[in-house]
Amino acid sequence: MLKVEGVTKYYGNFMAVDNLSFTVKPGEIFGLLGVNGAGKTTTFRMIMGLLEPTSGEITLNDKPIDYSVTDNIGFLTEERSLLTKMTVREQCLFYGTLKGMSKEKILSRLDELLLKFDIPEYKDRKIKELSKGNQQKVQFITAIINEPKLLILDEPFAGLDPFNVESFKKEIVEMAKKGSIIIFSSHRMEHVELFCKKLVVLVRGKSVLSGYLKDIKAQYRQKNIFIKGDVTKEELEKIAGVVEVIEKADEFEVKIEDKKVAPKVFKVISNKNTEKFVVEEPSLNEIFVAKVGESYEK
Predict the structure, then answer these.
(1) What is the pLDDT of the chain when averaged over all its residues?
(2) What is the CATH number of the domain that holds 276?
(3) Nearest CA-CA partner of 56 in 113, 99, 93, 3
(4) What is the pTM of this model?
(5) Are residues 17 and 102 in the same domain?
């Protein structure tokens, strides 16, 4: 288990992380979210042992993270960190050797992953000759080549099309099923919702929202109703408790204060030849924007 307990980090007089605590169990995919400058990168570096917390403690399986355990950690950075004049094979041999792997194991694992991500023909191509999407695949391969017990993913889907996002997701979920601890960060909330069951949102280094995603959504009062039928935007906007009505191509998205407003909306549209009436929890993106906005207003 990864434990981050009361961690604070100062750079001089600037507090980058403020009394942050969370735990991630083996097999969990945990979302660490926040706007730029929220403290995510500093937190990642402390987890990997690259920075010392000013106070607090970070442990993996009840032991401090040091060079004795770094061979079991994988990290995909937001910035491209590949050595572009190397071939894919050379790059993976370099990273795998740093993780204490034998040459035979590295090459065997590389062949397996290249095939999985549908790029076996690029093994002896230089990194600089690959597209951005394929470079991202190689960067992901270098992060997981050692089958890490702790994997940190910072914007892993950057530059990927939907098909390859799905292949990355499949591999991440498979690693979690095998017991890896995975920490995932992205500005794309729909990506977080793909598989993060638990998360924390940072604002100015401080946690402003944390817990299981299903609980966070259930506790957030505002809901959305999707309606398709012979009703007008003006009719919907007049209903008490309706916050906003968004007109889409063939339906309305109606944002309501809480679920108690839904019957009022249904009463208005019940005789309007309605094809669709679906009440849904708000998206993580809506909750994120609202919560971060509230924190900046304080």
Answers:
(1) 91
(2) 3.30.70.260
(3) 3
(4) 0.83
(5) yes
